[in-house]
């Protein structure tokens, strides 16, 4: 084991990252960073698949699968997994029938009175719902609800959670350091023998999540509209949580298929940071994860976004105060221009010395807040500016004032002082990212998945620090143009 | 002390109990005694002992005083080249005069944002941001909190800036106007976020406008705050006998104390610190159904009544009770039922205020679709009543105690958080060994005690059901829970200057 564990120590200023790196025979990538700061460790398990891999009509599936991964396994969360199996299948069939009936109801062309297709009679809906209730009750006899959570919590876990992004799905938790074996057992069990019980109830939970984030939240509604408008072809246009009609037509077998296709050890990165002995940790990981068979990964062809040829505008009516979001297409993370755009982002929008704060929040007092960001993505994404005007100023006024600040950057460039400040912040951010095991594990795992090498967290900072004033001016000129932007405006509805 | 091995001992015992009792519980959330084969096996796992106890004052953490009486807590941890300073200044929202609601919030931020007599606001921003440092003040209910975060090589400059900000704020008039304008905009946008609106209205309903905790800043109160108010606020609250400071991170004790002494030690203030009186909370229940109309497809629900204050002798039992009800995440009764079993909510849970100087609030929160609202309210009311009516299975209580015991070390994993916790004990008048004995107090709570506490502190007849949502649809659905009163929300009519 000793020989296979390669230790790397990378120094950036006073910072050294003593990462032990290993690839299991089945292709699972393992990173271990021993640290003595507390008797705890944090774990981060990432599958290199996200909403970008979903098929048309099945948006939201990766996120739905993420929720299902907490529902237990063949041996956790159930008194009898075998007895559950036929009930799970029955529920799948019933929900499929309901879905078909609902679609029939929506269709203007098949009035049930004229051509009641056998088994597709909408009046059967209540009977089906009754059958579902019965099957659900039958399954309840076997289910131990939320037992997977219960075990983790009882054993002292904190921060147990997961997240789905466009390019990845990640599962994380922090544990007392003496519970490493238990972590390995629970995680390997759920990535080999998960049971997606309570799928259709959880689908309702996800619909509530959608309402909370997008339908009852003006900012969410606006960003969904912006993204769907900015991307015409690339699947980044779809919300990670899924479109409402797709959510209603996700079924357990869809999640199983997605799981079997993408949750392979050779598509996973696992990172452990904390009070751990690296040799022993690797041995435990080999034991628990080493026998999971690798599998060929599908070649997913992701439609790429064609160049934008002219400004796009969209408005959203909402019972809320106005706001505006602007998105510019930018090259992918790792592209040389992306570094310069990140620096431009910081100079425009980070802190009280930023251009937008000084010019528009404090100076002209047009805005209450302005946030600027570039999302780290594998395919070309967006630089977004999200702003709230201060009454009586309108979104239009604020939008043009933001435009003026951007033109000022194009004409006059940035100062050495501004650049120096960004560089200092980058260095301090790196040190701060080392404060918590959990955030460091996430950073390492993200870099490994995104760039194929965890050292990218250091490399990217090097590249960011090398950005010159000319670079910033050039990228602002070439990407922050009218023709390359999408503007989304939230307008108040009349109060009733 | 070896808390984790002891907890493991308890786990074996529970496994034994479960093996003997297969009987199901009555209706409601599924019986807790149920266990899968996998969980049984995990229950038998033996973990190596973890030798750990909370950091203690007088051991890892040192308490000192500067020559002018400023209390200092020191927790050196040299793993990273960072330094955090956290200060607590007695003052805050509780002391806001009624007609100037929002004063503490504005004043705390302006102590930093308004610059100092020697450094203009812009120059202060420039210097801090070019050092990649942050120095901020904010106001809580009982304390103003100062937070400084630096690369430790900038310690000397950082401490000097901190002293300058605390001792000599300039309260730049332009910065006050900026803050006022942004707060007025925030007020205008108050309705946009339904959960925020819900929390504010729930608090306002209970504390009323006769208590600072019930008063939100209004257009009138924000407009009335003058630069003179800020100066008087600073003179009254920001003084050496009213300040505690904690340091965590990369420092040498003696040199940091010398530096603090040099920058803050000769600071003096006239007379003795005196704080304005705080009105008592009239803990009159506000039972009924309250509707706040917003035409959105999801209702935000808050159900609850008054909680207790931190001197309550049953505090730990109440906290455990809340863990069981809705404060323990996915393993809580309400989450299991409303979210996992019925699919009615993504966000659902409860909190029971026990940590304030004055009585806090007990609230169950759930966000659910309009046509699921009545069902969610019914389920929550059921679970609240069941806490009083049915004995708590020992296994459920033990699981909650074990979770607390086994995760306790995370409360102290970050040195800054740890030293702040210890300093807060003195600030709140709790014994300095509080955390050394806390787990024992949780473990001492029995099932019987828990039910007694539920019967005493959970009052179904006092529950206010406050809902933000589509009133037209909700009114008929919620009328079975009591007579409905509508809380008119202020349409955003804030004047513009």
CATH hierarchy: architecture of the largest domain in chain A = 2-Layer Sandwich
From the alpha-carbon coordinates, what is the Rg of chain B to the nearest angstrom? 25 Å
CATH superfamily of the largest domain in chain B: Metalloenzyme, LuxS/M16 peptidase-like
Fourth CATH level, the homologous superfamily of the largest domain in chain A: Metalloenzyme, LuxS/M16 peptidase-like
Order of neighbouring strands in the sheet with most strands of chain A: 1-2-3-7-4-6-5
Low-confidence segments of chain A, given as residue ranges, are none
Strand portion of chain B, in percent?
15-25%
Derived structural class of chain A: alpha+beta
Cα-atom radius of gyration of chain A? 25 Å
How many angstroms separate the termini of chain B?
62 Å
Structural class by SSE content of chain B: alpha+beta
Order of helices and strands of chain A: EEEEHHHHEEHHHHHEHEEHHEEHHHHHE
Instruction: Estimate what percentage of residues of chain A fall within beta strands.
Output: 15-25%
- Strand tally of chain A is 12
The coarse silhouette of chain A is globular
Oligomer: heterodimer
Number of helices of chain B: 18
Number of domains of chain A: 2
List keywords for this structure.
heterodimer, A: alpha+beta, Cytochrome Bc1 Complex, Chain A, domain 1, five-stranded mixed beta sheet, B: 497 residues, alpha+beta, 3 domains, six-stranded mixed beta sheet, 18 helices, 43% helix, disordered N terminus
């Amino acid at each position: 084991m000793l020989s296979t564990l390669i230790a790397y120590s990378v120094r950036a200023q006073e910072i050294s990252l003593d990462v032990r790196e290993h690839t299991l025979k089945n292709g699972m990538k393992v990173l271990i960073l021993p640290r003595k700061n507390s008797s705890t460790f944090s774990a981060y398990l990432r599958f290199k698949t996200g909403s970008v891999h979903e098929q048309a009509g099945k948006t939201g599936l990766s996120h739905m699968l993420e929720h299902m991964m907490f529902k237990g396994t063949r041996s956790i969360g159930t008194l009898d997994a075998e007895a559950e199996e036929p009930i799970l299948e029955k529920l799948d069939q019933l929900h499929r029938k309901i879905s078909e009936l609902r679609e029939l109801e929506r269709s203007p062309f098949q009035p049930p009175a004229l051509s009641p297709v056998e088994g597709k009679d909408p009046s059967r809906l209540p009977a089906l719902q009754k059958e579902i209730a019965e099957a659900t009750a039958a399954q309840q006899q076997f289910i131990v609800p939320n037992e997977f959570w219960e075990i983790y919590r009882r054993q002292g876990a904190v921060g147990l959670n997961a997240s789905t992004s466009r390019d990845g799905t990640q599962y994380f938790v922090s544990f007392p350091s003496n519970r490493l074996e238990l972590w390995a057992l629970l995680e390997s069990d759920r990535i080999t023998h998960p049971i997606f019980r309570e799928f259709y109830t959880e689908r309702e939970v996800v619909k509530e999540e959608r309402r909370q984030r997008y339908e009852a939240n003006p900012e969410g509604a606006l960003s969904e509209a912006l993204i769907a408008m900015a991307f015409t072809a690339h699947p980044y246009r779809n919300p990670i949580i899924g479109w409402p009609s797709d959510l209603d037509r996700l079924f357990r077998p869809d999640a199983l298929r997605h799981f079997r296709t993408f949750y392979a050890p050779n598509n996973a990165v696992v990172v452990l940071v904390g009070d751990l002995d690296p040799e022993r940790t690797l041995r435990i990981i080999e034991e628990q994860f080493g026998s999971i068979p690798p599998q060929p990964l599908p070649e997913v062809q992701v439609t790429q976004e064609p160049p934008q040829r002219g400004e796009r505008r969209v408005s959203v009516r909402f019972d809320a105060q106005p706001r505006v979001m602007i998105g510019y297409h930018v090259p992918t993370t790792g592209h040389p221009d992306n570094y310069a755009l990140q620096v431009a982002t910081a100079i425009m929008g980070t802190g009280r010395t930023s251009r937008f704060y000084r010019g528009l929040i404090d100076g002209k007092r047009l805005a209450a807040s302005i946030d600027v960001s570039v999302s780290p993505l594998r395919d070309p994404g967006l630089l977004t500016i999200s702003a709230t005007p201060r009454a009586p100023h309108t979104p239009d006024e604020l939008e043009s004032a933001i435009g003026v600040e951007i033109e000022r950057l194009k004409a006059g460039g940035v100062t050495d002082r501004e650049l120096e400040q960004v560089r200092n912040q980058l260095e301090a951010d790196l040190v701060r990212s080392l404060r918590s095991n959990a955030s460091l594990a996430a950073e390492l795992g993200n870099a490994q998945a995104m760039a194929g090498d965890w050292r990218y967290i250091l490399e990217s900072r090097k590249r960011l620090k090398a950005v010159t004033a000319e670079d910033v001016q050039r990228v602002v000129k070439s990407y922050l143009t009218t023709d390359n932007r999408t503007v989304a405006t939230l307008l108040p509805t009349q109060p009733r | 002390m070896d808390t984790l091995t002891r907890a493991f001992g308890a786990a074996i015992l529970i496994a034994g109990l479960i093996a003997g009792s297969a009987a199901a519980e009555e209706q409601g959330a599924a019986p807790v005694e149920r266990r899968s084969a996998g969980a049984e096996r995990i229950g038998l796992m033996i973990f190596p002992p973890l030798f750990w106890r909370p950091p203690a004052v007088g051991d890892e953490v040192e308490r000192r005083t500067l020559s002018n009486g400023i209390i200092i807590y020191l927790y050196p941890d040299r793993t990273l080249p960072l330094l955090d300073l956290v200060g607590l200044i007695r003052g805050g929202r509780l002391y806001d005069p009624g007609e100037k609601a929002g004063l503490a919030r504005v004043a705390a931020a302006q102590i930093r944002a308004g610059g100092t007599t020697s450094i203009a606001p812009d120059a202060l921003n420039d210097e801090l941001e070019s050092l990649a440092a942050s120095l901020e003040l904010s106001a809580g209910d009982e304390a103003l909190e100062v937070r400084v975060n630096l690369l430790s090589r900038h310690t000397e400059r950082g401490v000097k800036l901190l002293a300058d900000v605390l001792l000599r704020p300039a309260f730049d008039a332009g910065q006050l106007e900026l803050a006022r304008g942004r707060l007025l905009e925030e007020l205008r946008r108050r309705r946009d976020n339904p959960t925020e609106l819900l929390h504010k209205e729930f608090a306002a309903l209970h504390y009323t406008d006769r208590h600072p905790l019930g008063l939100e800043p209004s257009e009138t109160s924000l407009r009335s705050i003058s630069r003179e108010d800020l100066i008087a606020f600073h003179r009254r609250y920001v003084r050496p006998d009213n300040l505690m400071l904690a340091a965590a991170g990369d420092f040498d004790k003696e040199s940091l104390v010398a530096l603090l002494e040099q920058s803050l030690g000769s600071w003096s203030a006239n007379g003795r610190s005196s704080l304005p009186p705080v009105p008592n909370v009239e803990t009159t229940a506000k039972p009924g159904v309250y509707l706040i109309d917003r035409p959105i497809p999801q209702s935000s629900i808050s159900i609850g009544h008054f909680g207790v204050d931190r001197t309550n002798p049953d505090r730990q039992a109440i906290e455990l009770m809340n863990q069981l009800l809705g404060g323990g995440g996915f393993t809580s009764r309400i989450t299991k039922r409303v979210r996992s079993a019925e699919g009615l909510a993504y966000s659902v849970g409860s909190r029971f205020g026990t940590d304030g100087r004055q009585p806090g609030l007990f609230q169950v929160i759930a966000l659910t679709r309009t046509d699921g609202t009545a069902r969610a309210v019914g389920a929550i009311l059921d679970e609240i009543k069941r806490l009083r009516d049915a004995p708590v299975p020992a296994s459920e209580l033990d699981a909650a105690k074990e979770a607390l015991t086994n995760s306790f070390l995370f409360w102290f994993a970050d040195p800054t958080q740890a030293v702040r916790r210890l300093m807060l004990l003195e600030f709140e008048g709790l014994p300095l060994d509080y955390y050394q004995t806390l787990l024992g107090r949780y473990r001492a709570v029995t099932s019987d005690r828990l039910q007694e506490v539920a019967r005493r502190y959970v009052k179904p007849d006092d529950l206010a059901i406050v809902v933000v949502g589509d009133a037209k649809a909700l009114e008929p659905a919620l009328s079975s829970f009591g007579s409905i009163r509508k809380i008119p929300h202020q349409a955003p009519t804030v004047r513009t200057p």
